[in-house]
Amino acid sequence: MAVRMPRGAYLAVGLGMNLLLGTAYSWSVFRAALIEEFGSRGADAFTALLPFAAAMALETIPQALWFFLPAFLANPSAVLWGRGTPMDFGRTLRDGERLLGDGKTWRGLIGGTLSGALLGLLLFLPFAFLDPSSSWSFGQPASDAGAAAVLAFVASAVLAFGALLGDVVGAFLKRRMHKPRGAKAPGLDQYDFVVGGLLLSLLVAGWSVPRFFSGDGWYGLLAIILITPALHRGVNILGYRLGKKHEPW
Ligand code: CTP
Ligand code: MG
Question: Where are the domains of the chain?
């Protein structure tokens, strides 16, 4: 049986996350201001106000969401790009269902991957000019500006491609459960692309492990897992209202 979260729950999660992110951001600005004003004594003062480790963890949360943006963008852009030849070329398996269905197309896969990659490159550019060593840069760690740009593009492409592969695996599983194209599969719909994006990001482990899989990165991973259902729902309702998606989920 399909379990549906009431609208209020999504609102509460969304508001809660915003509050958390806002608080994290103000604390990091506050800390920077203290240090600028009082040097190391400012840092000490901040440490007394809020445990330093917690402050770092709080910055990691919005950071992880920031770095996961290419994966978040992949599916909505596949909706815009997708048409034409289906990835399974119309093939039906012995269970009588399509391998993947008409909802997974080559154009969607390629367009979605390129969109995610370009987003990462775009988000990298201001840092390349203003603050190349920033912990918010998509191009870290890299030896020079060129390598940083390549890393930003490649890591974002891998995230977006992984997200779309996860979505393909989700569609494969939905067809095996005899669910038609567009049918709901709670859990799978929200998380197939998250799992896909995170797993494939291990191909660029030097980039992804510090961001999602070690130290404070674990808080970031948790944030991604918590915010994804609300974000997924919001984007799909938007796509539905704009007439780009057949269903609001
Ligand atoms: N899309 C695409 N290629 C992809 C992913 C998505 O062309 N690799 C497009 C399709 O037009 C699809 C739409 O984006 O219908 C919405 O994507 P999604 O919700 O993932 O697909 P569904 O139509 O719900 O199909 P399924 O049940 O197979 O997930
Ligand atoms: Mg769907």
Answer: 60-241
